[in-house]
Amino acid sequence: MSFSSKIFALLCVCSQLLFSQSKEIQFLTGKDAEHTKEWDFWINSGRKSGSWSKINVPSHWEQQGFGSYNYGRDYVTYGKNFKFHDETGLYEHKFTVPNSWKGKTINIVFEGSMTDTEVKINGKLAGEIHEGAFYEFKYDISDKIQFGKENILEVKVSKMSADKSVNNAERLADYWILGGIFRPVYLEANSKEHISSTSIDAKADGTFRSDIHLKGINSVNSLKVEIFDVKNNLVGESQVTIQKGDTLKQIQFSVKNPKLWTAETPNLYKAKFTLNKNKKTISHTEEKFGFRTIEIRKGDGIYINGTKIKMKGINRHVWWPETGRAVTENVDLMDVQLIKEMNMNAVRCAHYPPNKSFLKICDSLGLYVLDELAGWQKKYSTGVGKKLVKEMVARDANHPSIIFWSNGNEGGHNFDLDSEYAKYDLSNRPVIHAHHKPGNAFNGIDCNHYEDYYSTKKILEGENIYMPTEFLHAQDDGGGGTSLADYWELHWNSKKGAGGFLWAFVDEGLVRTDFNNQIDVNAINAPDGVLGPHREKEGSFYAIREIYSPVKIDLKTLPNNFNGNIPVENRYHFTNLKECQFEWKLIKFKTPFSSESGFDIIKTGKAESPNIKPTEKGNVNLNLPTNWKENEGLLLTATDSFGKEIYTWTWKLKSNDEISKRFSTSLIKTNQVSVVENDSLFILKSDEKEFAIGKKDGLLKSVIVDKKGKKMTFKNGPVFVNGTMELSSIKSFAEEQNQLIEVNYKNGNKIIWKLNPNGILELNYEYSLSGDYPFSGVSFDYPENYVINSKWLGKGPYHVWKNRTQGQTYNVWQNLKNSTRTGFSPWIYPEFKGYFDDVSWLQLDTAEGKITVGTKEEKMFVRLFDFYGIYGAEGYPKLPSGNISFLDAIPPLGTVLAFNINDKTESLGLESEPNHLNGTFKRTLYFYFGLPDLGDENKQFTMPKENILTD
């Protein structure tokens, strides 16, 4: 059974435990968005309106083909002409209840309905209309049920609320606004005397307290509480007497030496509450919980169990493209696993409480959770807000993963509600305000959004703890992992830095049933994720994974005196690195004309796990074999105590000079070379190839690759991407068996073309720069539509920016041609176009044949075709000339917010500054056009396909 399957099975068991013998459950809808039931449905406007039909529940009616779509910011688009999409849906469903339920208390429970919900049972109102979309509510319908007969449930749901503050808080928001019963509805039957709910406070010292809420107590009873560990061993218990009329009983006792809950050690216990009458159990319930203590030490930091922690968090909408906010446990599980795969330890539930299953999984797998009351820039009224705080906190209070309550977002704070949370949360968690304006710190924590690197630095020097609940907005390809390394170092090294929450987890793309099931991200409003709608991994995903790795290794290249020791820092809060595993691999990379990508594993071994305590530094000794230098690459994989990979680092062991020589010596066929010229061209020739160089500019004009005159359209280079190219001199001459053309320019730049007998066209160039530049190097032209795929030895497989090189590893990668624009359909990743890092050689497979380019020097970036990081009025940032570039420097990328304020990318940190270049830059490129005759060397290109490093 896979790890995911085991967790899912465990959660199913946990769900069943909640529905114990004293509480019987009957689902009226399906249990989730995948397992639905048909109800009768009518809607007043939009698609399929005005007549009764069927709808699957739970769901959003838009996704079932009813009504019309609207995004919460439609009022911005339509201005004064905007009208609320005030659709009303009527649901009907017939059900029966067992005769055994007679005499019981029967509630109908709605886990979530958008938005105002009126419920009738057999024509009678179940209670007052519920206002607010994201909250669980219930009605006691014991006196309205008919036994032995069919019962009729009628539900009227209005997409927009009759309460203006509800619309302001959650309907006019920067996200999709959907209608309908989107979470399960069920009946629960309890004995007349029963435990209605519990609230738990379990501290790190083993103190266990609970408020047990009771209903219908009409005689003396006893109440027993038992605590069981993960192996179901009884570790503590207590019993109290219940008097007639009691509605609340408090209980307290201690458990010795409990295993504590943290995001790194998600140790859970089970509390069993049993109500006995005459030694017979009449009601019981069970809750999972964890022992842990939360402290906010003002002017210092956030502490869990006495240890300061820093949040590596992200904002997450409840979302699936086909079903909107109606999701499944599998979606919740997938999301928690992906967040943890990024080496994050925290999640903010933006901008409303999530599914119950999501919180259970956070408890089980370990994430710190910020649970948020809706309020997107505007607040609930006090009357409605008090009810919704109670519903949210009463449902969620026993989850150890929840560290904070958030009282609304970005100005959506009703200060009258701040004191409400503690009424229903026995552990009295801290309340924060997730705001977007300076000077709004609350409870000693400043959560201000979207500060730049330098304003962050200033806030960290102030009096408050700083924990931005949104930062580095990830619209398009910006933000997310871009610039994150600088921000993270600031928070890690600052006393008052508490980390923060990136915006956001997924692109909120919705399958539009009114547009042939196309996925719509509402233009620039919703493509804000580091993952696509179906959890397609963008480049930032991998950058975050490396930056947030709790095993921190900064070694970019191996030193000449490398002896197998690698410096490492432990950035766990609670885990010693001796609890992790370290495995190395020595590898040989596939070569350019192999039909395969990847590498072959030559030897593997395990390193001794170093004894490095949290936040301390040390070394991991790999104990490599003495002949390790004979290999081409080294991989090191760190695995955590649960067997999950933390990260794999890679190092190239051979220089580009060695790699290029290996390729050139494998070319066994040679031809005599010569040069001819006419009025406009020098033509470098061999028996098979011709390269025409313009006399006026020194640029490549045409390429012929065989005796039949077959052309390849690679031309117009090398154009220096900075400055002018005014010719000073050009000459042709021979050097041994090679033919050369030397070109000098008036600004001191220089290029030399050299045709070798083995068919390699060599290009040597140099240029001088002094100042700040977005990029530097040279470019060529090639028709993009001729290209089929690219293969390269270097970092990959995703493209990079100057301030987001993290997360990419050495390998022979291969990407099929695509035109993906990050954040938009069709979400094919990795992107084919972009800047690619640390390339040793590149091969383009084209309709005209293969084009292979290598470099002698280290650290070359390759630019492939036209692309942009952020889409505004114009593409951004500006690209070099040409469409294939070989670069020594590439630009940083900002965020959509920086872009909108006249490109303040440099304010995002040191890595986000332009390239400060001063000096002369030299590089040698080797071009080979077509397929070479490699003789016996072909054997090295047909190794088995196993052991390919994948993403």
Automatic annotation (TrEMBL):
EC class (word): hydrolase
Glycoside hydrolase family 2 immunoglobulin-like beta-sandwich domain: residues covered: 204-292
InterPro entries: B-gal_small/dom_5 (IPR004199), Bact_Beta-galactosidase (IPR050347), Beta-gal/glucu_dom_sf (IPR036156), Gal_mutarotase_sf_dom (IPR011013), Galactose-bd-like_sf (IPR008979), GH (IPR017853), GH-type_carb-bd (IPR014718), Glyco_hydro_2 (IPR006101)
Domain of life: Bacteria
Cofactors that this protein relies on: Ca(2+)
One MF annotation (Gene Ontology) recorded for this entry: carbohydrate binding
Residue stretches making up the Glycosyl hydrolases family 2 sugar binding domain: 53-187
E.C. numbers: 3.2.1.23
Glycoside hydrolase family 2 catalytic domain mapped to chain residues: 295-515
Alphabetically ordered keywords of this record: Calcium, Glycosidase, Hydrolase
Catalytic activity: Hydrolysis of terminal non-reducing beta-D-galactose residues in beta-D-galactosides
Residue stretches making up the Beta galactosidase small chain/ domain: 737-849
Biological-process GO terms, alphabetical: lactose catabolic process
GO cellular component, one term: beta-galactosidase complex
Family the UniProt entry places it in: Belongs to the glycosyl hydrolase 2 family.
Subunit record text: Monomer.
Name the UniProt record assigns to this protein: Beta-galactosidase
Annotated organism of origin: Chryseobacterium formosense
